[in-house]
Specification:
Radius of gyration: 42 Å
Strand order of the largest sheet: 4-3-2-1-8
Shape: elongated
CATH superfamily of one domain: Reverse transcriptase/Diguanylate cyclase domain
Structural class: alpha+beta
Distance between the termini: 89 Å
Largest sheet: 5 strands, antiparallel
């Protein structure tokens, strides 16, 4: 919907050292950042450009045409794009808990930025704006997103669908980043693709596959609703009205999720027109009333008037169907409703909210319906249609007006009128031939055959009927080819979506594996860290070392001794007691060999020593040396030690129990004791 990021002309204020500050917001043109209270606010490139233009021209109302020219200079966009961008900008500038209207719209003219704006330059920027930590990584990521966006826009313009699919894959990959900024860049590229679909009419149906792939990466119900609406228009032309109706209903459901009244009104109008084409009068009337109600609520008045014209065209379609079925009374009632709706638009007066194009459509419809309802007004209506034809420049508009004139001349029935109708039909066929307007050719050939029959020229009527049958046969063949192609595209799209889903599942599983790996790595790091107070092994590390030593001693029949040590005066981890624990730990490490494991246990003031490959006598000598070295009266640091040879035990879980029994005996004897349990005692 928006164009490629334009190369903006040099601006006197938007230099590298200038920022705009208003309220809690600041905008940096050089880095293209909008912040609120120092926090980065995610915006699309077009919304940022719109804000920048309004800030630069803050002393005046900027007309609609000027905004479209400055922001979408190299692209043709519809008139409804600008209000959507303004709505997005207002949402971006909203501050929680505050209701400040920074953007003011002047009906029929344009928009203006209101509020006090401070232009901050040079070294004063950091003082005026809260901390704005613009990192090199963030800038490079934003630049990469922007390059992908510009590449995608170019591929859309060149119909390079394989290249666009590759760009879409890059945007969807985990390596492309993510977050709010990434999703907004994706959304704007998707809007550009939808605009391409609308601008190319029925010739760009093959773009639907890429658009659907892009839609799978979006959570915005408004954009998804727009996609299904465009898709419904294609199905309405190429496949069946039933499929189109399904797409329009899906678009309506998504529009309700978005809560956007304008989008809801548009979806309701499309549903109403689809029911008019399927001749479902009750459903058409219901959805028409709903679309008009929503259009009146969402504003502006011009939107409501366009919906009135659409409703009038729907009533005309229903009236024509009823007239062909011979239901004249019902047809006149439907035409009368169409007449009243067109009159409501025309009564707005010159210079009102109704645009020139909307007024012209309403005027042509009013002339057409008036001629059908009142034969006395037919001549005046014909003159009005002739005047509209003289002013019409669009080929499709000329063909439609010529067909309307021919229809009303045929209803008049006299020979000059039939001759004039023939000339109008031939002119309309010539316009269709010259500009490849295939939609109207069928009706024109049928109308020409009816005129020839009314003139009594049966040879010409037969020739025209043969041309009509041949044309319909060719159209049916083309329709079959299109349906087959669309079916193939649909199947291809489903395969690609399944593949994309598989890739997403692989990415999800890989992400889970990485998360588990990170958790295990963090756990191992925690387990490998020594005790924070003493620097000795932790209880968890002690258990792992004991299990490994036990397994090796059992398999290789090596001696294995364990010692449990307890300070007779139990300290805690703080202050002087912490220093005592560190000093005790230092003595233990100095007394033991390099291969021995010294650990601090959970119980306060308790330690453990694992003598791996050492018999009971050497282990007893080490423990006695430790007890004697720490036997000091001031401060009291005596140790009680339990030592045991645990190699004969069948289970490692029994080892700590036997050593604990030895320590309990040492403590029960008054402390400062070494109690040894030999292998013989343990076996008993």
């Amino acid at each position: 919907m928006s164009g490629p990021p334009p190369l903006q002309p040099p601006r006197p204020e938007a230099s590298a050292s200038v920022r705009y500050v208003f309220g809690a917001h600041s905008i940096n043109p050089s880095t293209r950042e909008l912040r609120r209270g120092g926090q980065l606010v995610a915006t699309t490139p077009k919304v940022f450009d719109l804000l920048l233009v309004l800030l630069e021209q803050r002393n005046r109302v900027v007309p609609h045409d000027e905004l479209l020219e400055r922001i979408w200079a190299r692209s043709h966009v519809s008139a409804g794009v600008l209000p959507q961008m303004v709505r997005k900008l207002r949402l971006a500038l909203e501050t929680p808990g505050q209701r400040v209207a920074w953007i003011k719209g002047v009906r029929g003219v344009g928009y203006r930025f209101v509020g006090r704006v401070e232009v901050v330059a040079g070294a004063t920027v950091s003082a005026a704006v809260a901390a704005e930590p613009a990192t090199t990584e963030a800038h490079s990521s934003a630049a990469a997103d922007r390059r992908l966006y510009e590449l995608g826009r170019a591929q859309i313009r060149l119909d390079d669908l394989p290249g666009l699919a590759h760009t879409v894959t890059q945007l969807r990959s985990p390596a492309a980043g993510g977050g709010t900024r990434h999703s907004l860049i994706w959304a704007e590229l998707f809007e550009s693709h939808l605009e391409r679909l609308r601008a190319n009419g029925k010739t760009a149906w093959h773009h639907l596959r890429t658009a659907q792939l892009m839609m799978e990466g979006l959570d915005d119900p408004h954009l998804r609703s727009e996609f299904h609406s465009v898709r419904g228009l294609y199905f309405e032309s190429f496949t069946s009205e039933a499929e189109a109706l399904t797409e329009f209903e899906t678009a309506w459901a998504l529009a309700q999720q978005s809560g956007d009244l304008r989008t809801m009104a548009g979806c309701a109008a499309r549903l109403a027109f689809a029911f008019a084409h399927s001749h479902n009068a009750p459903a058409f009337e219901q959805w028409t009333a709903r679309s008009l109600q929503l259009a009146a609520e969402c504003g502006p008045r011009s939107t409501y008037l366009r919906h009135l014209v659409a409703a009038a065209m729907g009533w005309k379609t229903l009236a024509s169907h009823l007239a062909r079925r011979g239901e004249r009374t019902e047809a006149r009632q439907a035409w009368a409703k169409a007449l009243r709706l067109n009159e409501a638009v025309l009564n707005e007066g010159e210079g009102g909210d109704v645009s020139a194009r909307t007024r012209r459509i309403a005027w042509i419809n009013w002339l057409d319906v008036q001629a059908r309802l009142d034969e006395h007004c037919r001549e005046a209506s014909l003159q009005g249609l002739q005047a509209c034809l003289a002013d019409e420049t669009r080929p499709s508009g000329r063909a439609q007006l010529l067909q309307l004139l021919a229809r009303h001349l045929c209803e008049r029935g006299d020979a000059p009128a039939l001759q004039a109708a023939t000339e109008h039909i031939n002119q309309a066929l010539g316009v269709c031939e010259e500009f490849s307007l295939t939609d109207q050719r069928d009706g024109l050939l049928e109308q020409a055959a009816d005129v020839a029959t009314a003139q009594g020229d049966h040879l010409a009527a037969n020739r025209l009927l043969r041309d009509l049958l041949r044309w319909r046969s060719e159209q049916a063949a083309r329709q079959a080819e299109r349906v087959a192609a669309i079916t193939a595209v649909r199947l291809d799209t489903e395969r690609m979506l399944a593949l994309a889903e598989s890739e997403r599942e692989k990415s999800r599983l890989l992400s889970l594996e990485n998360q588990v790996l990170r958790q295990r790595t963090a756990q191992l790091e925690r387990l490998s860290e020594p005790d924070a107070v003493t620097g000795l092994a932790t209880p968890a590390q002690w258990e792992r070392q004991l299990a490994a030593a036990w397994a090796e001693a059992s398999s290789r029949h090596l001696p294995l001794c364990l010692a449990l040590l307890a300070l007779d005066a139990q300290p805690d981890d703080r202050g002087a007691d912490g220093a005592v624990l560190r000093e005790v730990a230092q003595h233990l490490q100095q007394a033991c060999r390099d291969g021995d494991v010294v650990a601090r246990l959970h119980e306060p003031g308790r330690f453990a020593i694992l003598f791996h490959g050492v018999g009971l006598a050497p282990a007893q000598a080490v423990c006695e040396r430790i007890r004697v070295r720490l036997d000091r009266p001031l401060p009291p640091r005596s140790l009680s030690i339990g030592l045991a040879d645990v190699a004969p035990l069948a289970e490692v879980t029994h080892a700590m129990g036997h050593v604990g029994l030895a320590l309990a005996q040492a403590l029960a004897s008054g402390g400062n004791r070494l109690v040894v349990l030999s292998a013989d005692v343990i076996k008993k």
